[in-house]
Amino acid sequence: MKLVTAVVKPHKWEEVREALAATGIAGMTVTEASGYGQQKGHTEVYRGAEYDVSLVPKIRLEVVVDDADVDKVVSTITGAAKTGKIGDGKVWVIPVESVVRVRTGETDEAAL
Amino acid sequence: MKLVTAVVKPHKWEEVREALAATGIAGMTVTEASGYGQQKGHTEVYRGAEYDVSLVPKIRLEVVVDDADVDKVVSTITGAAKTGKIGDGKVWVIPVESVVRVRTGETDEAAL
Amino acid sequence: MKLVTAVVKPHKWEEVREALAATGIAGMTVTEASGYGQQKGHTEVYRGAEYDVSLVPKIRLEVVVDDADVDKVVSTITGAAKTGKIGDGKVWVIPVESVVRVRTGETDEAAL
Amino acid sequence: MDSGDTAWLLASSALVLLMAPGLAFFYGGMVRAKSVLNMMMMSFIAMAIAPVVWFLYAYSLAFGDDAKGGLVGGLDHVGLNGISPSTLTGTIPTYVFVVFQLTFAIVTIALISGAVADRMKFVAWALFVPVWMTVVYAPVAHWVFAFDGDDIKGGWIANKLGALDFAGGTVVEISSGASALALALVVGKRVGWKRDPMRPHNLPSVLLGAGLLWFGWIGFNAGSALGANQLASLALINTVAAGAAAMLGWLAVEVIRDGKGTSFGAASGVIAGLVAITPSCGSVSPMGALVVGAVAGAVCAFAIGLKFKLGYDDSLDVVGVHLVGGIVGTLLIGLLASNTAIELLGFGQPGLFYGGGLDQLGKQVVAAAVVLVYAFTCTYVIATVIDRLIGLRIDEEHEVTGIDQIEHLETAYDHAGSTTGGMG
Amino acid sequence: MDSGDTAWLLASSALVLLMAPGLAFFYGGMVRAKSVLNMMMMSFIAMAIAPVVWFLYAYSLAFGDDAKGGLVGGLDHVGLNGISPSTLTGTIPTYVFVVFQLTFAIVTIALISGAVADRMKFVAWALFVPVWMTVVYAPVAHWVFAFDGDDIKGGWIANKLGALDFAGGTVVEISSGASALALALVVGKRVGWKRDPMRPHNLPSVLLGAGLLWFGWIGFNAGSALGANQLASLALINTVAAGAAAMLGWLAVEVIRDGKGTSFGAASGVIAGLVAITPSCGSVSPMGALVVGAVAGAVCAFAIGLKFKLGYDDSLDVVGVHLVGGIVGTLLIGLLASNTAIELLGFGQPGLFYGGGLDQLGKQVVAAAVVLVYAFTCTYVIATVIDRLIGLRIDEEHEVTGIDQIEHLETAYDHAGSTTGGMG
Amino acid sequence: MDSGDTAWLLASSALVLLMAPGLAFFYGGMVRAKSVLNMMMMSFIAMAIAPVVWFLYAYSLAFGDDAKGGLVGGLDHVGLNGISPSTLTGTIPTYVFVVFQLTFAIVTIALISGAVADRMKFVAWALFVPVWMTVVYAPVAHWVFAFDGDDIKGGWIANKLGALDFAGGTVVEISSGASALALALVVGKRVGWKRDPMRPHNLPSVLLGAGLLWFGWIGFNAGSALGANQLASLALINTVAAGAAAMLGWLAVEVIRDGKGTSFGAASGVIAGLVAITPSCGSVSPMGALVVGAVAGAVCAFAIGLKFKLGYDDSLDVVGVHLVGGIVGTLLIGLLASNTAIELLGFGQPGLFYGGGLDQLGKQVVAAAVVLVYAFTCTYVIATVIDRLIGLRIDEEHEVTGIDQIEHLETAYDHAGSTTGGMG
Ligand SMILES: Nc1ncnc2c1ncn2[C@@H]1O[C@H](COP(=O)(O)OP(=O)(O)O)[C@@H](O)[C@H]1O
Ligand SMILES: Nc1ncnc2c1ncn2[C@@H]1O[C@H](COP(=O)(O)OP(=O)(O)O)[C@@H](O)[C@H]1O
Ligand SMILES: Nc1ncnc2c1ncn2[C@@H]1O[C@H](COP(=O)(O)OP(=O)(O)O)[C@@H](O)[C@H]1O
Q1: Alpha carbon distance D126, D134 (integer Å)
Q2: Is-contact F222 F239, C-beta < 8 A?
Q3: Chain A residue closest to C111 (CA)?
Q4: pLDDT-derived band of residue F416, with 50, 70 and 90 as boundaries?
Q5: Does pLDDT of F420 surpass 50?
Q6: Which residue of C30, D14, F48, F185 shows the fewest CB atoms closer than 10 Å?
Q7: Cα separation of the two ends of chain C
Q8: CA E23 to CA C6: how far, in whole Å?
Q9: How many angstroms separate the first and last alpha carbons of chain F?
């Protein structure tokens, strides 16, 4: 199995979730994150002094999938998250050695 | 070494932490996360319009461990986090190539 | 490529970001996390009853890098995050099989 | 001068002044975290601009000796000319009266801002405020609040038509509600409207805001008696009765429709009731006030649904609560005005249910209709002109990012790392 | 009618009305983020139901001409029958008196809700409110607050027994505290009680709430003089003195016991002192008020520990603060009532320390005991009956999830992505 | 006794009392989430300690019969000795006057705390409060607020010098501002000052706090007329005018300098205007008040930049707003005091622009200068002594961790898991 991690724009995340659901992806884990990259943050003023907020809000999602589903999942995410503007985010794939479903103790494929 | 990532129910996390401590796990990193899966979220009403909050709160924890400890850690977590109800969460294991302890520069096993 | 994950003290994170930028690291993803380890949390009092807040605030950052840059990145982070006091944090490296840049569909090295 | 009456009006002025920050908190909690500052600033800037305009000339337009046909006051009090600490209005110093009336203007303008949450250029709003106050508020206040005196002529609704509006159901509620509708139409919908829930980011703020508004409203209504007298006591009890009954009315609708009552509904219900009792608190009995409140609460709970059907984005339901609630309260006077209250007031007729016939109701309808149409039309024109001149809206992309960052170079909260204790 | 007295009572009514939202904020900050809305709604629904009940009949039960033996008022004022804007109570319009007294009822009921945070069915609470008000509040208010007049008979504690309770130490504090205990016992403990800290989710709200309560309490106590007079001035200074001394008393206990003083302790201390001075603010000197406050603050700081020993989950310490504080204040009158104050009041005896002997203390004990037992018993029965009928509690699982989602279909906050600026 | 005047002063006392919690919220929102509780506690402990000190002896030092040369009051009213509910001050009960004046002391002390946010030992602050009140506040209040009576002598500034300070520009604003500067200098800079932005963690709190302060300030200024009279009406209208104009003045500076106006600037501007009108609200016309406000708003917007140039960490800009604003308002009296107002006051001369020459201005300069120097010097000494004795600051590491955890064993918020709804 693989762990697909994606960092996307917050207002795109709903679409990503729906697209994944459509392809039958049963679950995922989501965290609020902040991104740093080519997309610049914004500038705030406090007592007349400007300072940069270098980070931009992102949604980070993790999906553990069968090897077979990796490409489908990656392309689904990239498809749904794309706006074409800088800051759309990244998706990366990592090998997973084993997975367990806490409730049942089922492992690997069965745990997803 | 391996990275054990677990997603569990918030009110179970204290027990998980204690169980791990009991087995001598020195440390871990915790993040607040939201989960999506078979466990459904809840419905809220706003101005008479219903909408689904598809995500459920979860605690996500990461533990880097020696290869030898992996099974113990995984079973400890699953044991402590289990309620038997849908939404208990997942635990997955990923290979880690190296670890460094920032304070001392110690690496690998010594860094844990 | 590799995924370098680092857990550092909040007030050190700015320096880490600047140090990485200096070495030409284009981007990273940051999440607020809580750490548990040798560094103890603090004690609070509520209605006269003491209770321990076992967790300490940390910043968790993820950087996907070329294999070639791994050592540089790891040493840069450890260098910038170090205070020498307990709780400075950890850095670990994980293999990444592929990366995609959502905006362009570029993959791997080109996606960073 | 009566020191007791003056004491109450001093206190009432403070109470109504607090309504603007209260409203800012009430509205601020309703929007998303990325636009709460702008939402609050729309009320605060009204607190800054309105006093200057009011003292310079708007007070004179509203309460100066009638210039022509009961339509607008003259310029005799420009710059508060001719008024000194020793000048009296009834039994209180005129300066207190000037401030008390000013606070009404502030609240009225601030109310409108709820219709254009998250998306209006701040400079456009800052321009809208003085213009609207001059073109809409001052004249309408003259029509309704300026009564003929021995040596001074007032407005047509108060004196010629003889409609009853004790504390501003037309001037404050209908005019702000109708203007909110016009402004919302010209400004247009928020990005993602109907698609995203855009739910309140902080409901406790909404509830506290509602509480502060109810508190201030006691000065608003009971202060409108311009003294610590019998009429004030009637306005007081009716204000409490209507707010309470309206909360029940609104929650009842929710329980029946959604199964449970929401905190947002409770807060909105109170306001709906206070809106409806504003014109009628001087002319109905406490039992009548319970009816006014219950009706207003239930009606407004449905009215806020209109925007989805008719397709205008009145973001915080100024129309559903203030326009509709204002109409309900203004018209119900025609049915529920009690003989005792009318006697005490010294003018007007009892309502239909008190044997007064349809006469008063007719006058109420005219007053409500004229103010509605006038406010809507003027605001529509003002907004369109400002749009042509400098544009009313921020960019779509900026709106998605959050108006606070763009228009105020700030973000409301910075709780980084502060909640860790929570998991321990 | 005296316009000055009326002005002060109008202002006082507004001040005490604000106490309910203030309490909602105070209590709301104390619970976990998942149940803050329900906590606040319990106060708000009291603001909605109590006025209706009060105007319809409860006012009459409390202040109508005595029906029998000083136990309860008659039905002569049902529907506020026989009261018009021109009716007076002392030097103020009766409508103002009706509202002022109503606000006391609202606060008293809202106080009870703190004992059952996070777990009580909202419909059960909404049913409890009117029943409790009818069975407990109205009669007790009659006993203590209804004084004999020329043509009207009042309650037994005020007129026959002659216990002193200026602003409601028995009616408000002891009755709410004793009822809170009964309700907490019947409802049962929260899931995870004693295991989880369940610490306040927003302490700044608690502090602001305490500030709003102190502010409102000035109307509560000084307004109870029913005029802007000497007695009001005494109540005012004592209210400030006791709140201050109690904060010091509570913090002193914390510093000695825990090493530091907490903000939660400061907020709780103020309230403890205000509770204790409520009955006594009209009968002690400012120096006496400092003593009352200091004692109350210190005693209550310990009293809140009781629940852990005795094992009842009075979630927000209504018992430790209001029942205990109310008893402290009511009894201390027997020791500290000063000659000057007693003279001014025109009845009662000076306290033991002022050479008045034990006479007054005895009366205070009787009043406190009777009200405590009556409120506790009635509430226990009412709660048990409601539990049988519709159940008092939500499911355990729902409680863990959070009552806001379940009972109000809402969650309080949505700060998604709003704090990013923080890390920059 | 006049019941109307008493009613207004009772209400004013409540209003000013609310300013301390309002300030706590205003200041609390400005600091980082890790030190909000300590920030609020510095105001709350002032509410606890000041009343005790005031009633025990400080009131006597301020308003007792002059002891020597108009420098300090005697001890005749120690323990409020010689004052009973029937004692009058002018037309109101003395107890009310005592409390009203006390609330000024509370606010003044609380203001100082803004200069030492995030880093001062709480015990050191708790020690500073009573000492400062005794050494600085009480005497200065005597100089400025204690007027000669038939059988009582007052302070030198009020009676000998004849400077005009209606509600405390010197006593409250200049003394708190100068003391804040001294304290900030002795305590030293925060860790990371100038490096980290240390931006406000909750701006909506700051805005609500500003609203509550404006509300309370009406009691502060109009209450200083000690009655519901013509002077109160003048103070009322000027207070509203100056707050509004100052918000515009401050925002104008921001718009010109930064391109946009911030919500923090709006809140700060209001306060700057209220500060400046505090001394002058009884001696300028409403048009003059607009000028006072506009000038104060613009000047203070620049003044807050000073600390970065001069290198002292006056964390929440007490110097830039209160010292500078207080000076602006005190001196402008010398230019803008109007003939009508002066007549009404019954003493002082009209300002330069009203043909009164430079005479009054000179007196204003002397009063401002003497109070500034006296407050600064005494505070510097007091702070240095306390530092020697017990140390003023917490450890650097603790400061980085957050003072709330260290000094109060609490953290302000626990929103764990409460915002999930947000993403849905
Ligand atoms: N090397 C990296 N490692 C991890 N996350 C990254 C990396 N580079 C970018 N990101 C994440 O992707 C987001 C978008 O990247 P950015 O360079 O801003 O735009 P784009 O991906 O469109 O070129 C960033 O905000 C950050 O969260
Ligand atoms: N494929 C997945 N990848 C990552 N996390 C997952 C995945 N499936 C489920 N999860 C996480 O596990 C949690 C529990 O899963 P769920 O299907 O709801 O219940 P259960 O694990 O008991 O079958 C989810 O809320 C989510 O956080
Ligand atoms: N085994 C582990 N797996 C994941 N994260 C860890 C592990 N051990 C420690 N950490 C993270 O590193 C942080 C610092 O570790 P700690 O033991 O407190 O200090 P140090 O690293 O200086 O020895 C912890 O707060 C936690 O976030």
Answers
A1: 13
A2: yes
A3: A90
A4: low
A5: no
A6: F185
A7: 10
A8: 45
A9: 63
Q: Which ligand is nearest to the CA of B12?
A: 2
- pLDDT, one tens digit per residue, over E315-372 is 999 999 999 999 999 999 999 999 999 999 999 999 999 999 999 999 999 999 999 9
**Does residue C17 line the site of ligand 3, with CB under 6 A?**
no
List the single residue in D with minimal CA-CA distance to A45.
D409
Cα torsion angle, E392, E398, E401, E405, sign: negative
Q: Which of B3, B4, B29, B66 to mutate to test the pocket of ligand 3 (most atoms within 8 A of CB)?
A: B29
Which of D28, D93, D410 comes nearest F233 by C-beta? D93
Residue D416 pLDDT: 65
* Residue E415 touches partner A, C-beta closer than 8 Å: no
In this complex, do D411 and A53 lie within 8 Å of one another by their Cβ atoms?
A: yes
> Does any ligand 3 atom lie closer than 6 A to the CB of residue B28?
yes
Identify the residue whose C-alpha is closest to ligand 2 atom 21.
B89
Would you state the pLDDT for residue C75? Answer: 96
Closest by CA to F405, choosing from F415, F394, F416, is F394
Pocket mutation for ligand 3, best pick of B28, B101, B102, B106 (most atoms within 8 Å of C-beta): B28
Report the gap between the CA of A72 and the closest CA in chain B (Å).
18
Residues in a beta bridge with E398:
none
Average pLDDT over residues B75-104: 95
Q: Do F420 and B44 touch (CB under 8 A)?
A: no
Give yes or no for a contact between D16 and D219, defined as CB atoms under 8 angstroms apart: yes
In a mutagenesis test of the D interface, which of E9, E10, E203 is the best target, namely the one with the most D β-carbons within 10 Å?
Answer: E10
The reported pLDDT for the residue numbered F353 is: 97
> CA E118, CA D70: separation in Å to the nearest integer?
58
D178 pLDDT higher than 80:
yes
- Look at residue D422 and tell me whether its pLDDT is greater than 60: no
Q: Nearest-5° angle of CA D134, CA D137, CA D139?
A: 80
Q: Which residues from chain B sit within 8 angstroms of residue A102, using beta carbons?
A: 6, 8, 77-78, 81-82, 88-91
Q: Quick one: CA torsion of F323, F327, F329, F335, rounded to 10 degrees? A: -170
- pLDDT given at position D250: 98
* CB distance A10 to E416 below 8 Å: yes
Alpha-carbon distance F250 to D39, whole Å? 19
Q: Which residues of B touch A26 (CB under 8 A)?
A: 37-38
Antiparallel, parallel or unpaired: β A28-36 and B28-36: antiparallel
Closest of F105, F169, F220, F164 to residue F327, by C-alpha = F169
- Would you call A48 and F304 a contact, using CB atoms and an 8 Å cutoff? yes
Alpha carbon separation from E305 to C27, C48, E186, E300, E313 (Å, rounded)? 53, 8, 20, 9, 11
Res E51 pLDDT > 60: yes
For residue E241, is pLDDT > 60? yes
| pLDDT tens-digit map of F221-279 | 999 999 999 999 999 999 999 999 999 999 999 999 999 999 999 999 999 999 999 99
b/e B28-55 (16+ beta carbons within 10 angstroms → b): bbbbbbbbbbebebbebbbbbeeeebbb
- The listed range with the strongest mean pLDDT (B2-16, B95-109, F207-221) is F207-221
CB contacts, 8 Å: E410 with chain B: 44-46
